[in-house]
Amino acid sequence: MAATAGTPGTPRVLRAMNDRAALDLLLEHGPLSRTRIGKLTGLSKPTASQLLARLEAAGLVLAGGTTEGRPGPGAQLYEVNPAAAYAAGLDVTPARVLAAVADVTGRTVGRYELPTPGRRPAVPVVQQVTDALDGAVKAAGLARSDVHRLVVGTPGAFDPGTGRLRYASHLPGWHSPALLDELAAALPMPVGYENDVNLAAVAEQRLGAARGHEDFVLLWNQEGLGAALVLGGRLHRGWTGGAGEVGFLPVPGAPLVRKVSRTGSGGFQELAGSQALAGLAREVGVTDVPSGPYPEVAAALVARAARTGDDPHRRLLQTYATRLATGLASLVSVLDPELVVLSGTSLVAGGEALRDLVRDELEELAASRPRLVVGDVTEHPVLRGALESALATTRDEVFDTSR
Fold first, then answer.
1. What residue ranges do the domains of the chain occupy?
2. What's the CA gap between 245 and 265, in Å, rounded?
3. How high is the pLDDT of residue 151?
4. Is there a common fold for 84-199+382-398 and 211-376?
5. Alpha carbon of 83 to those of 109, 206, 333: distances in Å?
6. What is the per-residue pLDDT for 67?
7. Which residues have CB under 8 Å from 309's CB, separation 6+?
8. Distance (Å, rounded) from C-alpha 182 to C-alpha 299?
């Protein structure tokens, strides 16, 4: 919408508001003509022309092709300049650091994976981060200084009071209180840090199953079991960043784990986490349990159970759904969300079959009735959320033409 004469602020601020509205429309719709931008923003043709000339001179838009399929000469089309800025994201697990760089339109232009196996890091964490970032930057044909902002996703969360990583004892090398200062000194761009499950929720809210939803829970099951809480359109992180660490939740039918800070897990994690699926499969009579890393084993078992009709696999899927619903009922009862998104490989693998079973079980355990959906962002959702988070801040800064 065009800024009106009654809008408070200087002409410069009003122009900047119209500039940002036009840039957001170009991001949403792709190349648009001056006439189309004018109609979508409510601006007159002369004002739209001045706006586009201003944005082109600032290097924020490019004049591209022309419209086709109509009589007469085609109208000039404009698009956001992809090279106006770049942002980067990192997805950190105990086994690897996955990095990617995106241009300001959101298109991934470079990706790199740095393996980090072993209980003790072979190289310092700061070097892991810079090596992974540099690999993605090189793959994009850029320099490190071209990246406007970096967002790093890890299990757990950095305590805002101490700077220490909490709730992620299984991530070696990341627990030094000086780590954030060391990273800030090593990197030329601002760096943000976010819980990995929260970033999966950012990806679903921006691009996937939670688009348009202000209140939802994302339940995640992959290397660990966790949740992201979005309330009033914003992530709820808690006092120490630990909101959503539902793996520690004591639940009926699970062993009570008293030393959660040492073990890194709790009742719900022991009951329904990915590492429990192989044992559960054997308990219900599945004989051909695969071997390998437990997230992959769990996903394979759940996928097979969702498409196989024999009794052992039906019992596996039903029991898994009951265990998931047992912990999810506590979240739903307290938060009363509009939507629950099931994400992470061990939940996405079950598809609609698992979703339906969890929904039916949840209706028996909780008074509220949220809608349950399977996540849409299935390719590296944590990395995608890190990129979306970094891009949001980058666009706010680069697209602010009032500066």
1. 11-80, 84-199+382-398, 211-376
2. 9
3. 98
4. yes
5. 11, 22, 46
6. 67
7. none
8. 37
Ranges of the chain whose pLDDT falls below 70? 1-9, 67-74, 254-266
What is the fold, at CATH topology level, of the domain defined by 11-80?
Arc Repressor Mutant, subunit A (1.10.10)
Q: Rg of the Cα trace of the chain?
A: 24
How does DSSP classify residue 338?
S
User: What is the spatial distance between Cα 147 and Cα 104, in angstroms, rounded to a whole number?
Assistant: 10
Report the pLDDT value the prediction gives residue 111, as an integer from 0 to 100.
98
Q: Which CATH architecture has domain 211-376?
A: 2-Layer Sandwich (3.30)
CATH of domain 84-199+382-398: 3.30.420.40
Per-residue pLDDT tens digits for 77-120: 999 999 999 999 999 999 999 999 999 999 999 999 999 987 77
Read off the amino acid at residue 333. Answer: S
The C-alpha atoms of residue 370 and residue 209 are separated, in whole angstroms, by: 14
Q: Please, where are the H alpha helices in 241-380?
A: 260-263, 267-272, 277-283, 294-307, 311-335, 345-348, 351-365
Quick one: DSSP state of residue 228?
A: E
80 token code pair: 């956001």
SS3 at position 218: strand
